[in-house]
Design a protein that fits this description.
75 residues, alpha+beta, Alpha-Beta Plaits, 4-stranded antiparallel β-sheet, 2 helices, 27% helix
């Protein structure tokens, strides 16, 4: 599965979140951005279970993450 996870982050935590999320298995690319959301993450996993686990069990639990919005690629 491929998709994008958009992350809103507490002030002062953007660099920390980008560094932490970049180290997670399945994350192919992460960028800090101006405006909202604060971080764009490109994800590739073998299946839906791995994608869900990455977002729910890892990304959403990172210190500084306030909110995520997930978009699955359909092409």
């Amino acid at each position: 599965m491929r998709g994008y996870v958009l992350i809103n982050v507490r002030p002062g935590k953007v660099r920390d979140v980008v560094e932490a999320v970049s180290q997670l298995e399945g994350v192919r690319h992460a960028d800090a951005c101006w405006g909202l959301p604060d971080v764009f993450v490109y994800v590739e996993t073998d299946d839906e279970k791995a994608f869900n686990g990455l977002v729910i069990d890892h990304i959403q639990k990172l210190d500084g993450v306030e909110r995520t919005e997930t978009h699955l690629a359909v092409a």
